[in-house]
Amino acid sequence: MTRRFVALLLCFVxxxxxxxxxxxxxxxxxxxxxxxxxxxxxxxxxxDQFGRRTGYAYVYQRKIAAYTGWKYEYVEGTWSELLQxxxxxxxxxxxxxxxxxxxxxxxxxxHIPMGSELYYLYVSPENxxxxxxxxxxxxxxxxxxxxxxxxxxxxxxxxxxxxxTQELIELDTGESExxxxxxxxxxxxxxxxxxYGDPDKAIPLWKIGASDFYFVVAKNRPDLQxxxxxxxxxxxxxxxxxxxxxxxxxxxxxxxxxYLTAExxxxxxxxxxxxxxxxxxxxxxxxxxxxxGELTGALKDYLEFASGVLENARPEFEAVAYPTxxxxxxxxxxxxxxxxxxxNLTDYDAETAGVIITAPLMTTEMDAVVxxxxxxxxxxxxxxxxxxxxxxxxxxxxxxxxxxxxxxxYYESTPACLNAMASKGCxxxxxxxxxxxxxxxxxxxLHLTTVYTGVDMDxxxxxKEGNSTLYxxxxxxxxxxxxxxxxxxxxxxxxxxxxxxxxxxxxxHPSIAILDALCLALIITVVVLTVRMKKSKxxxx
Length: 541
Fold this sequence. Notes:
The protein has helices at residues 2-31, 56-68, 79-88, 151-161, 175-184, 222-238, 242-250, 262-271, 298-306, 325-333, 347-353, 393-402, 414-422, 436-446, 468-480, 483-498, 502-508, 510-538, and strands at 34-39, 46-47, 53-54, 71-76, 93-98, 107-109, 115-123, 142-146, 167-171, 189-193, 203-218, 274-279, 287-288, 295-296, 317-322, 339-343, 355-357, 362-371, 385-389, 407-411, 428-432, 448-464. It is an alpha/beta fold. Among the domains are: 362-465, Periplasmic binding protein-like II (D-Maltodextrin-Binding Protein, domain 2), CATH 3.40.190.10; 511-541. Strands 12, 15, 16, 17, 18, 19, 20, 21 and 22 form a nine-stranded mixed β-sheet that branches.
């Protein structure tokens, strides 16, 4: 009886254990909610050349799913169709919805915005009847806008304030078809996001408005709103710049920055070449070619590329070398030059110097040159004497911001700093990783090496305060130059500088060079003697 009871008990326990995985799997299945999400072809949601889903909203939604465990079911349609489907409860989630009080009756808004967007009025490049200088040339024209969007209200306010009377046509078509209507002449202008600029088909003329945009949830799914807001809060805690990074990646390729305004074009035509003061002997970034005196380095390639990035203008640049960055900055302040490179100043330091700083043209890792015996423990040192070139405010500001406890020791040049390190007059020199090839030979002779500081430096243009039009032009140009082109130029000039000549090798290693020459002479002598011996044996005795 006891054995039978024990056997029954074991069977019961085994049955319970076998049931546990099945129950857990079923519970996990129930926890993965299926969310019907709207899919519309735009930079927010699109497929790449391999058919893979991507875009601002798609990537953001995948990030949300990482915190919620949601499974998405994609429902396709135009934005207007999907907005109506959300109101009807046929989809659960929709992205890129601007806030209006009226819409709150039909949907829940996320507490945190997805981001911010701009709305522009686009026209065909073939349309010569509409002028950016005169908004009233829109009078009587057919203006298209997507039905149900906040853009319609923005345009009505804008047109009233500019005295424009037009025929506003609300469209239910997708963005690509609406732009095709503009191309075919069925519309005179089309109002949409600033991400749709195509210089061949549509060019932006006027900024009509701007607003935050949100994720929205259907009213019949309040459970999703709670999870959505929690996920968005987690994402913001993880990276408060997440939406900005998505915007840079998916939305910044806007056609609006490819065009100068009428005021900017007038300034450029009246001014002529933009004079760029640059620091000499600063490869791989910039230097005057010792043979021609012309600019060489990554800045040369950058300016050549920058001349062709705008659609309605071709700015020309004239580069002038100055011995130091300080001298180049003074040239801007006294009017000899329009801008200078490279500039790396904080906003406060720029204000003190009377200049404004553009977005970065180039970015570089900053290395600390140290003695080989100090390499392992250098970053642990509390007292550091850093060699600094006289007349280089970029490094002075860099040290104040990132290494305020270091003591600067000033020298005439970088080679002088390195020699001082070897004799222990200072402990380090900070240098761009792209510039190390320029000093590699000297470092090798002096038994110096590098340690990455963990900090990067941005190199920008400095423009005299008050020259707002030039600043605006340069900002547009900088936004259109791809990072890949800049990095390729820096890599080229850095590696090109590193190619030491045979004469450099001899200069650096005279004893090895002499030994190599003796070995070569010995080999030649042996070869000659061998040939002579063979010839003498062939002669008849």
